[in-house]
Structure formats: C-alpha cells, structure tokens
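hey
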C-alpha cells in the first residue's frame, strides 16, 4: 500500500510540473521571439511552419477518408449481423430447442457453400 501511495504522489507531482511548464511555455517563447531580428523570424516562420501546416491538412484529409471507410465497414458488419440474427429469430419462432435451430442454420450455410450438383 505504501508503494502505491508513493507512486501516486510521484505521478501527481509530475503531472503538476508538466501542467505548470505547459502554461509558462508560451510566455518563454514570446520573450525569445522578441530578441530575434524580424527578417530571420519571417524566414524561419515561412520555412519552418509552412510545411507543418501543409502536412497537417494532408493528414487531416487522409484521416477523414480512413475514418469514413472504417465507418462504412462497421455499418456493413452491423447489417450483416442484424440479418443473421433476424434469420436465427425467424427459424427459432415456435421452436423450443435452440440447439436444433443453430444446427439447422449451420448445416444450411454449409450446404450453400458447396457446389451445386451438375
């Protein structure tokens, strides 16, 4: 229990230090930018941040496309499961033994996978 409490205190204090550092970081960056000459600041800003913005836009577009496709796959899977459950529900109406229904559905799916006789 002592180790748990000591680790908890350690991580909470680490989190507080990171929080304080994150709040003070913009103040430090503003002070450092004021000391640089304006021409070098513009060049650095153009070359340094322009490509980051371009990559950010491309990544956001790529992520949107991937998430849309993933959403589509999840919706198709949901429809497949719903249809399968409806088929099981229709077969089980009026029947007492659920095992028999599942075996029947399984055997019918195996028969549909086999090639039809010629």
């Amino acid at each position: 229990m002592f180790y748990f409490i000591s680790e908890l205190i350690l991580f909470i204090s680490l989190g507080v230090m990171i929080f304080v550092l994150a709040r003070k970081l913009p103040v430090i960056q503003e002070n450092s930018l004021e000391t640089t000459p304006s021409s070098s600041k513009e060049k650095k800003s153009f070359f340094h941040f322009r490509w980051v913005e371009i990559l950010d836009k491309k990544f956001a577009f790529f992520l949107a496309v991937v998430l849309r496709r993933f959403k589509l796959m999840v919706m198709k899977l949901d429809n497949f499961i719903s249809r399968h459950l409806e088929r099981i529900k229709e077969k089980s109406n009026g029947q007492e033994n659920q095992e028999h229904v599942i075996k029947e559905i399984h055997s019918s799916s195996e028969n549909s996978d086999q090639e039809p006789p010629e």
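The mean pLDDT is 77. Helices lie at 2-35, 38-92, 98-113.
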